[in-house]
């Protein structure tokens, strides 16, 4: 009988924090910018420069720690992690090894109806490295230190996950928590959330873990899922052939859907960690923790429950709306303005999701004002415009954030509610379509649809199909 294997996965997730300035200096953390323009002597590692800790970094790290059920380390300090690499200007990285800011937490995930806790081993603050750009044409490597010193929180899980689905559920949960806290935008494509996957396989029932590899260069959930499947198969194949899995760091190539070895995996002693001499320990008082706790916003799980009670919307809709804090904020504001949460929810659930998908956008990228969505709901509910005009107007709101009231006026899109005008058009349509009239009067109810269609066409869509239907039946 073929052996059964189990995958064992732990993650190291780096989250770039949303502070305006870097962790140890006042340079901007903005994404992009010409190479080496967001830099100073501190973040380019000049001799004699000294780091000064950004307090906001500690508060964001505490907020994430509290939201993921961690214990906050009340005396925590920084350590030097020594390694030599061109994008690391000091030849060391300031990180935390011995006393990280938060430990022993968990997040709860749900996969295929099963709830499960994924434990968090620890969470530490550190600075990001610069970025190497390899120029194939000139055969040179260039370095950009704009990202050097950008604050990160690294969240290290226990090896509690057993499938790609569990990994994605865990990452989505973490991303939602961090976005709700406002601690990071967590855009994988911009690198503000990055995950390294530690994976090993073992025979089902075995007590010992297998040899693990670490996979880097994963910048989308799809790439992470593919990398997990690919690495699992590679390791099983090696074991079946009687070969050894080597502990190493591998780089995933999503285009080729395969990975290759980058370097043998270093252990902590290879980094020669020692306490950072230029920074004092951080003493976190009970009062400070309480202050951060009091500022914690309503997280997604609480919002979900409230939406179902307060707005009486189905579980599925509430889940989609709260999946992105940005979308939830738009929903709440628009619903408060027009007082029609169900209608607002429908526009977000159907048309907004469709347009996001067509444009390859994320809910975070929505940039229309809640006021304009609320105004559209009011126009539709009042019968000022009909549903097909409303869709056309909404596409303009989505693309250009226009004021729907002004747009409807300007383009003459109001529904014609003038009975006299409607009657004139209907007389003409009846006269021009004797066959459809005869069919309808002979019992073919479908023929009425053709007459309604003709009327809408003549009135350039600016009429209420229900009113036309009713009026036609009366006249025939």
Automatic annotation (TrEMBL):
The keyword Nucleotide-binding applies. Keywords: ATP-binding, Ligase, Nucleotide-binding, Protein biosynthesis. It comes from the Bacteria. Its EC number is 6.3.5.-. Residues 329-476 form the Asn/Gln amidotransferase domain. InterPro entries: Asn/Gln-tRNA_amidoTrfase_suB/E, Asn/Gln-tRNA_Trfase_suB/E_cat, Asn/Gln_amidotransferase, Asn/Gln_tRNA_amidoTrase-B-like, GatB, GatB_C_1, GatB_Yqey_C_2, Gln-tRNA_amidoTrfase_suB_CS. The keyword ATP-binding applies. It catalyses: L-glutamyl-tRNA(Gln) + L-glutamine + ATP + H2O = L-glutaminyl-tRNA(Gln) + L-glutamate + ADP + phosphate + H(+); L-aspartyl-tRNA(Asn) + L-glutamine + ATP + H2O = L-asparaginyl-tRNA(Asn) + L-glutamate + ADP + phosphate + 2 H(+). NCBIfam families: gatB, PRK05477.1-2, PRK05477.1-4. PANTHER family: GLUTAMYL-TRNA GLN AMIDOTRANSFERASE SUBUNIT B MITOCHONDRIAL AND PROKARYOTIC PET112-RELATED, GLUTAMYL-TRNA(GLN) AMIDOTRANSFERASE SUBUNIT B, MITOCHONDRIAL. Allows the formation of correctly charged Asn-tRNA(Asn) or Gln-tRNA(Gln) through the transamidation of misacylated Asp-tRNA(Asn) or Glu-tRNA(Gln) in organisms which lack either or both of asparaginyl-tRNA or glutaminyl-tRNA synthetases. The reaction takes place in the presence of glutamine and ATP through an activated phospho-Asp-tRNA(Asn) or phospho-Glu-tRNA(Gln). Heterotrimer of A, B and C subunits. Belongs to the GatB/GatE family. GatB subfamily. This is Aspartyl/glutamyl-tRNA(Asn/Gln) amidotransferase subunit B. The gene is gatB.
């Amino acid at each position: 009988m073929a052996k059964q294997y189990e995958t064992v996965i732990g993650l190291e997730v780096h989250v770039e924090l949303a502070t305006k300035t870097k962790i140890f200096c006042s340079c901007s953390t903005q994404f992009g910018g010409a190479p080496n323009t967001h830099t100073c002597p501190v973040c380019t590692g000049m001799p004699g420069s000294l780091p000064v800790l950004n307090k906001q970094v500690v508060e964001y790290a505490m907020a994430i720690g509290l939201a993921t059920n961690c214990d906050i380390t009340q005396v925590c300090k920084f350590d030097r992690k020594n390694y030599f690499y061109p994008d690391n200007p000091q030849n060391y990285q300031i990180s935390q090894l011995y006393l990280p800011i938060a430990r022993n937490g968990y997040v709860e995930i749900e996969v295929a109806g099963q709830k499960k806790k994924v434990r968090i081993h620890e969470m530490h603050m550190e600075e990001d490295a610069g970025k190497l750009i390899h120029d194939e044409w000139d055969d040179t490597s260039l370095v950009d230190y704009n990202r050097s010193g950008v604050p990160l929180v690294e969240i290290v899980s226990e090896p509690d996950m057993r499938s790609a689905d569990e990994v994605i559920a865990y990452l989505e949960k973490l991303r939602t928590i961090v976005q709700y806290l406002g601690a990071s935008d967590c855009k994988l494509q911009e690198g503000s959330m990055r995950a390294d996957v530690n994976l090993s396989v073992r025979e089902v029932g075995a007590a010992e873990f297998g040899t693990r590899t670490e996979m880097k260069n994963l910048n989308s959930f799809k790439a992470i899922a593919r990398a997990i499947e690919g690495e699992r198969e590679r390791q099983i194949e090696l074991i079946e052939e009687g070969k050894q899995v080597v502990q190493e760091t591998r780089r995933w190539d999503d285009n080729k859907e395969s990975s290759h070895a980058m370097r043998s995996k270093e252990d902590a002693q290879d980094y020669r960690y020692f306490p950072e001499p230029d920074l004092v320990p951080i003493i976190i008082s009970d009062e400070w923790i309480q202050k951060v706790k009091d500022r914690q916003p309503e997280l997604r799980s609480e919002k979900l429950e409230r939406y179902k009670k307060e707005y009486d919307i189905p579980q599925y809709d509430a889940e989609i709306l709260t999946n992105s804090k940005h979308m939830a904020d738009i929903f709440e504001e628009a619903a408060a303005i027009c007082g029609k949460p169900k209608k607002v929810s429908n526009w977000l659930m159907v048309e907004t999701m469709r347009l996001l998908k067509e444009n390859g956008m994320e809910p975070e990228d929505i940039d229309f004002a809640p006021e304009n969505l609320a105004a559209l709901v009011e126009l539709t509910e009042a019968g000022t415009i009909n549903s097909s005009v409303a869709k056309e107007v909404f596409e303009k709101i989505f693309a250009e954030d226009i004021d729907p009231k002004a747009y409807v006026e300007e383009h003459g899109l109001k529904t014609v509610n003038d009975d006299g005008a409607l009657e004139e058009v209907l007389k003409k349509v009846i006269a021009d379509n004797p066959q459809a009239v005869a069919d309808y009067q002979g019992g073919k109810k479908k023929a009425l649809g053709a007459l309604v269609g003709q009327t809408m066409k003549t009135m350039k869509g600016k009429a209420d199909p229900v009113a036309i239907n009713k009026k036609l039946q009366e006249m025939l």
